[in-house]
Amino acid sequence: MRIVFMGTPEFAVPSFNALVDNGYEVVAAFTQPDRPSGRGNKLTACPVKVAAQQKGVPVYQFEKIRRKEGREALEALQPDLFVTAAFGQILSQRLLDIPPMGTVNVHASLLPKYRGAAPINWCIAMGETTAGVTTMFTDAGVDTGDMALKAETPIGELETAGELTERLAKIGAELLIETLKKLEAGECPRTPQNEEEMSHERMLSREDGLIDWMMSAEEIACRVRGFNPWPGTFTYMPDGGVMKLWLARAASGSGRPGEVIEASAKKGLLIACGNGALEVLEMQAPGAKRMNAKAYLMGKSIPVGTIFSRERTEA
To answer: Which of 40, 131, 157, 136 is CA-nearest to residue 85?
Structure first.
């Protein structure tokens, strides 16, 4: 079985490696083009490209795979199956018709919930306690195809999107191999998605990380975890400086939304919300490194009564 793999970020690497390590004939890896990264804006290869080069698998990179050059490259490879995982481009029906066995996608949610580009982030941000991976047969819609297999896992109380992504990537790789084995044996289920249970979340932007202190402490705490490491959550200090929050949990307390109601090395940093209070566990003050909130307060002070805001003000 000739397989063309399509994927880009770190999430897709375990699935790619699992195919090669389990003896599948991966004839090519298609990834997004190299992008500028870091302070020097140096062109950087994506994780799947790096993994493919390490395995000796040819790499193809097209800005738009649906264009003629992408289609012709795929047709020339004569694949039996496409396997995708967080590729980042939508495949047209003309491309989906190329492999006779279809396209299997590894999607990081329990479909039909959390379709779209950032399922792990939104799953945590929306307060879910269970996450998972679904293998599915891709059609021309966005994550709308028939489901093959699912695997569930509980979300840790303080687990971040970055941590959950790493776990789901491994779970997804195992589920992919199980799916392909069933597909080869003619025993792979195809279950249509229930559109009444569907949810589709948009792509994240940096602005999503700006904290709205009118929200409940539980909602904000979920967003802090769900948007870690990107886009990160932040708020403005009275002098206009940006305070980043990396980890937090809901606690009891009351005050004006955004008001610091506790700030000490012993008790930590507590900020009032629309309902309850947010206990900040990890933070990053302007010009400082990321650190434990209590450790920060051992050397620096944040006066009780300080108001954090959604609006930047000049000192």
So the answer is: 136
- From the options 1.10.1060.10, 3.30.930.10, 3.10.25.10, 3.20.20.70, give the CATH code of 206-299: 3.10.25.10
Q: Indicate the pairing of strand 268-272 with strand 260-264.
A: antiparallel
Note the pLDDT of residue 312. Answer: 85
Checking if the pLDDT of 83 tops 90, the result is yes
Q: Which CATH number fits domain 2-197: 2.40.160.10, 3.20.20.70, 3.40.50.170, 3.90.1150.10?
A: 3.40.50.170
Phi, psi of 63 (to 5 degrees): -60, -40
**3-state DSSP call for residue 253?**
coil
Q: Are 48 and 7 in contact (CB under 8 A)?
A: yes
Label residues 35-53 b or e (16+ Cβ within 10 Å = b). eeeeeeeeeebbbbbebbe
**Burial, 198: exposed, middle or buried (Cβ in 10 Å; 0-12, 13-18, 19+)?**
middle
CA distance 132 to 236: 34
Name every residue whose Cβ is closer than 8 Å to that of residue 282 and which is 6 or more positions away in sequence.
245, 246, 247, 248, 290, 291, 292, 293
Boundaries of every domain in the chain: 2-197, 206-299
Give the number of C-alpha atoms closer than 13 A to the C-alpha of residue 100, restricted to the C-beta side. Answer: 6
Instruction: Report helix, strand or coil for 50.
Output: helix
Residue-wise pLDDT tens digits, 247-295: 999 999 999 999 999 999 999 999 999 999 999 999 999 989 999 999 9
Could you tell me the CA-to-CA distances from 106 to 40, 110, 202 in Å, in that order?
33, 11, 19
- The C-alpha atoms of residue 176 and residue 166 are separated, in whole angstroms, by 16
CA-CA-CA-CA torsion sign (203, 163, 131, 9):
positive
What was the pLDDT predicted at 91? 97
Which residues are paired to 184 by β-bridges? Answer: none
